[in-house]
Design a protein that fits this description.
Length: about 120
C-alpha cells in the first residue's frame, strides 16, 4: 500500500511540475498581456495545488503527523490567485492595454471603454 501512495504522490509532483513549466512557457510565448496573464494564473495554480496535495499525502508517511499548513496554503492560493489576476487584468483594461491583432470580440472592449470614459469637466 505504501508503494502505491508514494507512486500517486510522485505522479502529482510530476504533474505539478509540468503545469508550472507550461505556465512559465505560456507567459514567455503568448502574444499579448491578457493571454500572458491567463497562462500563469491557471496553470501555475494547478501546479502548486498538485505539489501541495502530494505534500499533504507524503507528510504523514514520514511520521511527522498530519500537517494543516499545506491545506491553508492551498486555500489561500486558490482564493487570491483569481482575484489578483482579475484586478491586474482590469487595471490593464482601464489603461487601454492593446490586444493582439485578431483577438475575438476586440470591438466589445472598445465599446466598453467608450461607455466608461470619465467625463471632462
Amino acid at each position: 500500500m505504501l508503494f502505491w501512495v508514494e507512486l500517486f504522490a510522485s505522479f502529482l509532483l510530476i504533474m505539478g511540475g509540468l503545469f508550472i513549466l507550461i505556465g512559465a512557457l505560456g507567459m514567455v510565448k503568448l502574444p499579448d498581456f491578457y493571454t500572458r496573464l491567463h497562462a500563469p494564473t491557471k496553470a501555475t495554480t494547478l501546479g502548486i495545488g498538485c505539489i501541495l496535495i502530494a505534500s499533504m499525502i507524503l507528510h504523514p508517511l514520514q511520521g511527522a503527523g498530519i500537517s494543516i499548513h499545506e491545506l491553508v496554503i492551498s486555500l489561500f492560493l486558490f482564493i487570491t490567485a483569481p482575484v489578483s489576476a482579475y484586478m491586474v487584468a482590469k487595471a490593464a483594461f482601464q489603461r487601454r492595454t492593446k490586444l493582439v491583432e485578431g483577438t475575438q470580440n476586440a470591438d466589445m472592449s472598445k465599446d466598453i471603454l467608450e461607455r466608461r470614459a470619465p467625463q471632462a469637466r
